[in-house]
């Protein structure tokens, strides 16, 4: 038995050693590794002709959509409001209005027509096909607007969270001796890690001022681009301070305190809403499970008792 145990230990050690050699990274020859890298590169990177062909197809599709959107834009009367919403959503390109209108006009036709043509092939009735086509067309018309509104709200929420910190940095920069323009540049550089959207908007204000736009107009453009009430109040305060010649640092400090108070109040409001929001998970998820666990055995005993009486 002793020899058998020693033999088993030796065989186990040999298997462990072979397993370690198998999983250990081996050193391939330099030439073989270089050839493997070249083959992977050739597989991963498309040829210049393929890339050019894809680029041409993409540009052709964009030109078709833009032409269609421009045709729709000529008949639309609310392009100004659409343009402002697209800028607030982060689409400052002048052709964004044409693409948006093309999407709102083309998606209902594509989704509704596709449903109308495909559903009969699956054996669906004409009434179901008609109703589904109408629903898909309505969703195709509403989806671009929903996506745009969701993107605007996301950007505004991000800027709203980062605005008190940006104001604190702005107060520190102005009190350190920097001018308002240089302080905006400094804050846009420092706030980028917290909110890239707010950093971009503050940098655009400085670029407009350097391009020759008056500061008041550049600040008003900031309020229009963001569509946020807190930034609109900040812009109004800065314009009034610049117009009447009062202390910018003191006004910014008071406004920063107000923004911090608003942020704390929003947090308290969100905490107060959690009790209301917990009602639905409790009623639909927790309470049924508790009723099954607590009342289940009692109901089973009652049923057995009734069967015994029967």
The N- to C-terminal Cα distance equals 68 Å
| Secondary-structure element pattern, one letter each | HHHHHHHHHHHH
Total helix count? Answer: 12
Strand content: under 5%
CATH topology of the domain at 156-270: Receptor-associated Protein
The stretches of 5 or more residues where confidence is low (pLDDT under 50) are 23-28
How large is the radius of gyration?
A: 33 Å
Largest sheet: none
Number of strands: 0
Class computed from helices, strands and strand pairing: mainly alpha
- Report the helical percentage: over 70%
Average pLDDT: 79
User: Per the principal axes of the C-alpha atoms, what is the gross shape?
Assistant: extended
Give the second-level CATH assignment, the architecture of the domain at 156-270.
Up-down Bundle
What is the quaternary state of this protein? Answer: single chain
Please report the first level of CATH classification, the CATH class of the domain at 156-270. Answer: Mainly Alpha
């Amino acid at each position: 038995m002793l020899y058998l145990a020693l033999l088993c230990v030796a065989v186990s050690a040999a298997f462990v050693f072979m397993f370690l050699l198998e999983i250990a990274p081996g050193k391939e020859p330099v030439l073989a590794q270089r050839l493997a890298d070249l083959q992977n590169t050739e597989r991963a990177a498309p040829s210049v002709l393929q890339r050019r062909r894809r680029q041409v197809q993409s540009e052709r599709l964009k030109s078709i959509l833009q032409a269609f959107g421009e045709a729709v834009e000529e008949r639309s009367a609310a392009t100004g409001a659409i343009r402002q919403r697209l800028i607030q959503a982060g689409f400052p390109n002048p052709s964004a209005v044409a693409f948006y209108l093309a999407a709102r006009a083309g998606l209902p036709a594509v989704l509704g027509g596709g449903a109308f043509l495909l559903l009969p092939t699956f054996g669906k009735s004409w009434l179901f096909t008609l109703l589904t086509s109408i629903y898909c067309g309505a969703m195709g018309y509403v989806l671009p607007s929903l996506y745009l509104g969701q993107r605007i709200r996301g950007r505004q929420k991000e800027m709203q969270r980062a605005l008190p910190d940006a104001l604190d940095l702005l107060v520190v920069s102005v009190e350190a001796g920097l001018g308002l323009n240089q302080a905006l540049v400094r804050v846009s550089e420092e706030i980028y890690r917290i909110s890239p959207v707010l950093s971009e908007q503050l940098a655009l204000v400085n670029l407009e001022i350097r391009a020759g736009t008056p500061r008041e107009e550049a600040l008003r453009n900031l309020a229009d681009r963001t569509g946020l009430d807190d930034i609109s109040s900040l812009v109004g305060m800065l314009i009034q301070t610049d117009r009447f010649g009062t202390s910018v640092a003191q006004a910014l400090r008071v406004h920063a305190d107000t923004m911090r108070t608003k942020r704390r109040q929003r947090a308290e409001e969100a905490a107060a809403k959690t009790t209301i929001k917990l009602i639905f998970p409790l009623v639909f998820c927790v309470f049924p499970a508790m009723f099954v666990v607590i009342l289940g055995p009692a109901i089973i005993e009652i049923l057995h008792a009734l069967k015994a009486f029967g």
